[in-house]
Amino acid sequence: MIKNTASLDLVEFIETQILPQYANFDSAHNLVHVTRVIKRAMELARQTGADMNMVYTIAAYHDLGMAGPRAVHHITGGKILATDARLKRWFSAEQINIMKEAVEDHRASASRAPRSLYGKIVAEADRDIVPEVVFQRTIQYGLANYPDMDKEQHWQRFKEHMDRKYSSEGYIRLWIPGSPNEEKLKELRRIIADEHLLRQHFDHLYQQESVASGFPAGKA
Q1: What is the 3-state secondary structure of 78-131?
Q2: What is the mean pLDDT of residues 143-152?
Q3: Helices and strands in the chain: count of H runs, count of E runs
Q4: CA distance 165 to 183
């Protein structure tokens, strides 16, 4: 019988020792984000029959590498997981290596498919493809990391990111057939293809997020 939830002692460890670290990251990679990823990953684990403890742990560790340079956060995160000796309480060396590789493989811009089902699950779960969430996280990241940009520069960065990552020509890939992300990506691409509509979404969320972050929204 396949267990449909993670072990309670593992959950307690993750919730008290791992998840609080996300409070140190930017708004696009904070506790709200990792909680969403965990929830989606667990749903996909039930759908695919994957080990719940492994999926839960991979999802919880997947962005810990944000403590260092973002460009290699997936590699750093894999090292953090692999060297955390506390995980030996629950997992074999082989399982830990699979989880390490899954963290390394979760990044959307990776040039190859994840090496295992576990990498595919967490990569898929990490895709916040609800359009408003995608737009919000992109603006949050821009405001946090490019504070000297004015609104029009943020718009150009936002638009270019949408085209490069999420458009029909973008690099994002989905790895679990029939996942809820398929329909969400179609809707997102419909909005991206309509620049006027995309700008409306940007203007609304830029105002909202700039106020929340203390950024001068009127800067132009």
Answers
A1: HHHHHCCHHHHHCCCHHHHHHHHHHHHCCCCCCCCCCCCHHHHHHHHHCCCCCH
A2: 94
A3: 10, 0
A4: 16
- Are residues 28 and 72 in contact, defined by beta-carbon separation less than 8 angstroms? no
Report if pTM > 0.85. Answer: no
How confident is the model over 17-27, as pLDDT tens digits? 999 999 999 87
CB proximity list for 167: less than 8 A, separation 6 or greater = 189, 192, 193
Residue 126 sits at φ, ψ, to 5 deg, of -75, -10
Taking the CB of residue 59, how many other CB atoms lie within 10 A of it? Answer: 30
Q: Residues of 145-160 as b/e, b for ≥16 C-beta within 10 angstroms? A: eeeebebeebbebbbe
* CA angle at 154 for the pair 190 and 40, rounded to the nearest 5°: 50
d(CA 65, CA 48): 27
What number of other Cβ atoms are within 10 A of residue 129's Cβ? 21
Count of residues for the chain? 220
**Pick from 83, 70, 166, 79: which is nearest to 127 by CA?**
166
**Contact at 8 Å (CB) between 106 and 122?**
yes
Residue with tokens 């997020």: 209
Cβ burial of 92 (10 Å; 0-12, 13-18, 19+) is exposed
Residues 6+ apart with CB under 8 A from 20: 31
